[in-house]
Amino acid sequence: MKRNFLLSSFFILLFTGCSVLKIQRPPESYEEVKITPPVSFISIPVEADLKKMENLLNKQFRGLIYADTSFDNNDKDDLMVKAWKSAEIRLTIQGNLLYYSVPLSVWIRKKFSIGAFGFDVSDSREVTGSIILKFHTRVVLQKDWTLSALTTSDGYEWVTTPTLQLAPGISIPLPFISDLLLASNQKNINSQIDKAFQSALNLKASFQPVWNSLQVPFKLSDEYPLWAKITPLEISTVPLQGSSNVIHHTLGIKAYTELFYGSEPAYQVNETIPDLKITSRLDNDFNISLALDVPINEINEIASKQLVGYKYREGKYLVEVRDVFLFGSGDKLVVALNIDGSIQGTIYLSGKPYYDRDSSSLKVRDLDFDIRTKNVLVKSASWLLHQNLIQTLSQQLSFPVGEQLQSARNQLQGYLDRNKKMEYFTISGTIDKPEIGDILITRQSIKAMIIFRGKINVTIEAE
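-> structure tokens emitted (463 positions)
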């Protein structure tokens, strides 16, 4: 009888002193990862030399520009008139107003009726003169990338006024010819100016290779597998402006910009250039994101080094961590600790990963026992619920990423500092300190979205 009592007491002490926990494992699950890169605004200044358009205009607009070879034209005005371009057309621009003048040589034949001016028979006389027709054109860039030109006459200036000499001391000036020349040539001159603009400033065609090239990922360094990728979304522009002989034009590209580690990221060039959005100002805030992955197997390896062998004592109780394993459960990171000592089994804690700026590490915020673990421990090992254990575990669970962040920033800034020349453009700029965006848990990794902010300048290479 005494022997049975002692044996029973031994087993009671044994099971009381070393309980085996049976705790339901939290469900392992992962939310569908939808990563939307930050939106960037890239300004691309474009300059066009007015001389190019001037040369095209003079090639298109030359020789005889007006010919009336019948006295019966224009309600039988008894005039024949011819006009030639006599010198080069010169262009200047201020704001969006293009000013130009057309120098002409004029030949006029005037017919006189019988009895007019004391003549007994019909007669005609020839005279010549030179005139400068003046115009200005308001140039507007349309959303379909075409240019509209609204031309207005600024009058004329006679260099040599045509004057009929009828007899000694009798002459008749013919300045009214200027109105005829303006009325008959303005449409033709406008048409030629428009053609010259379209040829010299075919903005869409000029921008096409730049648009295509921007979409091809580029490697930031030959030694480091870091790639930048730009995905344009839309293009904006401010109205055309100019001064002296230069037309200024700025394009603003709204785009997704991303950094990638490893091999060249997949991409697809969309060759369709969208319509322009005409605006009064352009943003120039550049944001480029880096999906910084810390693989789960690496996280488990680091956590094992930090926690396996860790002993926790609370009064007469002692437990030691034998193994550790982390996995995702929705938006939380679950820490599974296999412990031995006063109690045995696997306990589960969970919290949300975050970036700790002071240590440049990923840590776990609001770490606490999973509700299933807490329910069991309240009944069998409430001493393990002490906050000291949770605080210690929170401090130990730290996954450094600062070196990767600094390296990525250095590579990006170094690339921009070199004023890197691409095939069709040069890219430069400055990058500020990184900011941390969303942190996501996937089956393969903890994915931290890093955002580098700064200013980017893209300059189209001159032909």
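The radius of gyration is 41 Å.
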